[in-house]
Write a structure and sequence with these properties.
Blueprint (H helix, E strand, L loop, with lengths): L3 H13 L1 H7 L4 E3 L17 E6 L14 H10 L1 E2 L1 E5 L4 E5 L2 E8 L2 E6 L13 H13 L13 E8 L2 E6 L6 H4 L9 E2 L2 H7 L13 E7 L3 E6 L13 E6 L3 H9 L5 E2 L4 H8 L4 E7 L3 E6 L9 H10 L2 H8 L5 E2 L16 H4 L7 H10 L6 E7 L8 H11 L3 E7 L2 H9 L5 E6 L5 H9 L13 H11 L4 H18 L2 E6 L1 E7 L2 E2 L15 E2 L1
Parallel strand pairs: 2-13, 2-14, 18-19, 18-20
Antiparallel strand pairs: 1-6, 3-10, 4-5, 6-7, 7-9, 8-9, 11-12, 12-13, 14-22, 15-22, 16-20, 16-21, 17-21, 23-24
Length: about 525
């Protein structure tokens, strides 16, 4: 019989990295790579003011409610998580952050010890009570957090003493390491309870965390200012004295500012500019195909896309080669399903030949179109915005392809906030969008496609899909999990609430006077180790 606790320990240890395995496996204890307490608040001498061109949309700096990775990039510099994402150039792992130790008492009970003496920027302590407040705010707070699903299996937060607490789960939880990160997971991002109480609904404009930088101001359509947290708990960090995120909507304007030296970096670089940038000797480019996917989404809750055969026709009518060349400038990779290449153990490298997933086949598209209930020309509205990574290009490329199967597309260009509201209100027929920074199939499939999932804007529902994803959540063996997710995504792509398009690269650009940036392939912009020459 297998020792389930041992399997969980090995699974989590593998996610945490080799160095942690060496510390943790013998006694069942998973400890921080730093071995417990950091040197007592060793202070760094900060210098330099970095200016970053912020070209991604920002909604709120409240980590438990943000919808935008542009916001997460800033939040990750203000707040810590229980865990953090680390990349060694080859492999992504999840390592302790505010947690100093993580002890697996059994397959459903996780005991944590916090680093001592860590304070929020408002001077209140980051202790076990603060952790409980945060986790319960995500799990069952009002208003409901879109990340609540990540803590559905959390039954109790048991406080042992100010630095020690236990998380009791209803079942083993394979996704837990991702959920507890302070960046992409967001459910594990820790904010000041006192600040949440003080600012209420305005907390997202006044974020307070424990991170390497303190929030100073947010000037609408201008900039977001941070200053160094001189009491930061990681020795020698941060190195910068001040950070300014300059809000610049137009990427070419941001690039011109970078070239002229008005700013020092960009948090994203559109693909159409990247070849030009790579030729510039004074700029450094970081990036590649990350954990993401793009798609054309269809509202399955109302006509005409409540007809599964019409959705299937759309999925097979899109010529992905043309989309990759024209919308993604040949830099992206075709997506057949949502699971992306960085999800090693789950991504099928032979999927292009396997016959699984969605792909271009106009004859098959016409066959499904012939089965649709409405055989007349169908007119649909396709809402589009200047969202990265492809702006309005996908909509303009896809529209004539759909005309081939008798779907007349009316393009409606919206300002970003209006587009987002229409998406969230499910007030649309068709749109294109992307999902990014996903490092585990659970976050790629579960909230986006589960019945009544918090991000299931398509309104799609399939009980077998729900069951398979739920089963995969509590199975720790990667091969067994992968099999279940493959079965689940096969159901999804067959009923086509979305038509898959691409896995795309993301880029960060810095002038060569910026040193010490650690690239992490999930769209993070961590500046704690960065300095200016």
């Amino acid at each position: 019989m297998q020792d389930h606790k041992d399997i969980l320990a090995r699974h989590v240890a593998a996610r945490l990295g080799r160095r942690t395995i060496l510390k943790g496996m013998g006694a069942g204890m998973i400890a921080a790579t730093t071995g417990g307490a950091f040197p007592a608040m060793a202070q760094a001498a900060q210098s330099g003011h970095i200016k970053i061109g912020e070209i991604k949309p920002i909604d709120t700096l409240d980590p438990h409610f943000t919808f935008r990775l542009g916001a997460v990039q800033i939040i990750s510099n203000i707040c810590n998580g229980l865990l953090k994402v680390v990349y060694d150039g080859t492999t992504v792992t999840f390592e302790p952050d505010l947690a100093a130790t993580w002890d697996l008492e059994d397959e459903k009970t996780h005991a944590f010890t916090l680093h001592p003496g860590v304070m929020f920027h408002d001077g209140t302590p980051c202790d076990a009570e603060a952790i409980k407040f945060n986790l319960m705010r995500v799990k069952s707070g009002t208003p409901a957090s879109p990340h609540a699903w990540k803590l559905e299996k959390l039954e109790e937060v048991e406080i042992i003493d100010p630095l020690t607490f236990k998380l009791h789960f209803s079942e083993p939880y394979a996704f837990l390491p991702v959920a507890l990160t302070g960046s992409i997971g967001r459910a594990g991002t820790i904010v000041s309870p006192a600040a949440v109480e003080k600012y209420g609904e305005d907390f997202g404009r006044n974020p307070v965390g424990t991170g390497p930088f303190k929030f100073v101001s947010w000037k609408e359509n201008d900039s977001i200012e941070l200053v160094a947290n001189t009491e930061y708990f990681e020795a020698g960090l941060p190195k910068l004295e001040k950070v300014s995120f300059m809000i610049i909507d137009e990427p070419s304007t941001a690039l011109a500012a970078l070239i002229s030296g008005q700013i020092d970096g960009m948090n994203d670089c559109p693909m159409q500019l990247i070849e030009q940038v790579k030729k510039m000797p004074n700029l450094n480019v970081y990036g590649g195909v990350e954990g993401n996917y793009t798609y054309v989404g269809m509202n399955t809750q109302k006509p005409p896309f409540d007809d599964v055969n019409l959705r299937r026709a759309v999925a097979f009518a899109i010529d992905r080669d043309a989309v990759l060349k024209q919308a993604y400038f040949g830099l992206a990779k075709q997506a057949y399903t949502p699971i992306s290449p960085p999800m090693s153990g789950f991504y099928d490298p032979d999927i292009a030949q396997s016959g699984r997933g969605q792909f271009y086949d106009l004859e098959k598209a016409k066959e499904f179109r012939a089965k649709a209930a409405n055989q007349d020309e169908i007119e649909v509205t396709y809402i589009m915005t200047e969202n990265p990574p492809a702006g309005t290009r996908v909509a303009q490329i896809v529209a004539p392809m759909l005309a081939e199967i008798g779907i007349k597309v009316k393009l409606e260009l919206l300002e970003n906030a209006a587009w987002t509201q229409r998406l969230q209100d499910r007030d649309f027929e068709m749109l294109d969008f992307f999902w990014t920074a996903d490092l585990d199939p659970d976050e790629t499939l579960y909230p986006e496609f589960k019945t009544d999932g918090s991000w299931n804007y398509w309104g799609w529902s399939n009980a077998d899909f729900d069951r398979l994803c739920a089963e995969a959540q509590v199975i720790l063996d990667v091969a067994a999990r992968s099999k279940l997710y493959n079965e689940a995504e096969d159901l999804m792509v067959d009923e086509a609430p979305v038509a898959m398009l691409a896995h795309f690269p993301l880029y960060k650009i810095f002038s060569n006077k910026v040193q010490g940036f650690n690239y992490v392939p999930c769209d993070l912009l961590n500046l704690n180790t960065v300095s200016l020459a």
